[in-house]
């Protein structure tokens, strides 16, 4: 069986996007890492959120091997993934005014904390309102989005603004509108989205920058180890006990 031409094209497209982000967003990623390090050093808490498939890169940095133990998911009921039925309800909830306010108000997030908001389009009510309200509460806000949407689509928020308009630091994923990298004869719709690959890579790069910054300041970053490595559970238990006031995924 010969290699798939389209599979190779997707890898090329993803690698191209990763290279662009590495080169063009390096300064912003470093700034985001420094902001996370500032929050950790000051005793603040770290949160991340995303709706729909944008929740996947958020979940990827929470309670995972090799991850920063202090990253907490700020879940939005019904909008975190495709487990809600029907799946289209999750998309509809992203456009509901007031939902982000209710989630923030019932969360442990407070002034001095940091929130990473992931939204590919950044145009729906949920991410825009989340960013607005988080900053009003005194949180530092990092937005991970595709700036192309803000430049070429209309906002669905009453303010007319996008996620990027209400962040302290913006990270641009460079994903084109429509989030599909390939086209082919016989297929009427573009396909092969790369946003999850690229956005997850940005999240990990940002945390790597934060780890580097903490070490430079003489602070040992509280990292988690794999539970499938001998001693991993014991290591993680110690970290979670030591930082229990800043970890919310374990009661």
Automatic annotation (TrEMBL):
Cited Pfam families: SIS_2
GO molecular function: carbohydrate derivative binding
GO BP annotations, alphabetical order: carbohydrate derivative metabolic process
Ranges for domain SIS: 36-221
InterPro entries xref list: RpiR-like_SIS (IPR035472), SIS_dom (IPR001347), SIS_dom_sf (IPR046348), SIS_GmhA/DiaA_subfam (IPR050099)
UniProt xrefs under NCBIfam families: PRK02947.1 (NF002805)
UniProt-recorded name of the protein: SIS domain-containing protein
